[in-house]
Amino acid sequence: MYGGRIPKDDAATEAYGTTDEAVAVLGQARASAGADAGFGEEILALQRELFVVGADLATNPAERAKLQPDVSLVTAEMTERLERRIDELVAERALPQAFIVPGANAASAALDLARSVIRRAERNVVALEGEGREVNPEVRRYLNRLSDLVFVLARRQAGEDEPTSR
To answer: What is d(CA 124, CA 122) in angstroms, rounded to the nearest whole number?
Structure first.
């Protein structure tokens, strides 16, 4: 958006490239949902928000004033929406008390893959911050909460018969 040219192997490129990868994997989860239109709409909304994350990360710090909240700038409200949705879903069904082995079905497996990609994006953002790069702190919080939401959505899609690690 307002990024300028940076090398393909730059840490910022890795961070927003990983959010792009997460968009694609969430697309795989959405495609696996079949007739569950509500699930598909929810995943599409998350994919669109990840484009906001990517735009925020790709912006040259000198151009940050041009960013628009919820369009190209990650906001606290975006993160708060994720937190509310997590709370709603966990109130409907408690989370498992053991590690889960992914793969109960195609949608839950894609969501678990998306979660791991989102966690990697979060680690990339932490690395940028560690280098002293200017990063919107809400991006890291958003990615952290998004990965938790995607985990909860994966459990919902998997149903009751997920194998545990032991």
So the answer is: 5
Sequence letter at residue 133:
R
CB-based contact 155:95 (threshold 8 Å): yes
CA 80, CA 13: separation in Å to the nearest integer?
A: 26
Chain segment 61-113, per-residue pLDDT in tens: 888 888 888 898 999 999 999 999 999 999 998 888 888 899 999 999 999 99
Residue 106 contacts residue 158 (beta carbons within 8 Å): no
Q: Rounded to whole angstroms, what are the CA distances from 65 to 2, 4, 61, 151, 159?
A: 10, 15, 9, 33, 44
Q: Is the pLDDT of residue 7 over 60?
A: no
Instruction: Please give the single-letter amino acid code of residue 80.
Output: E
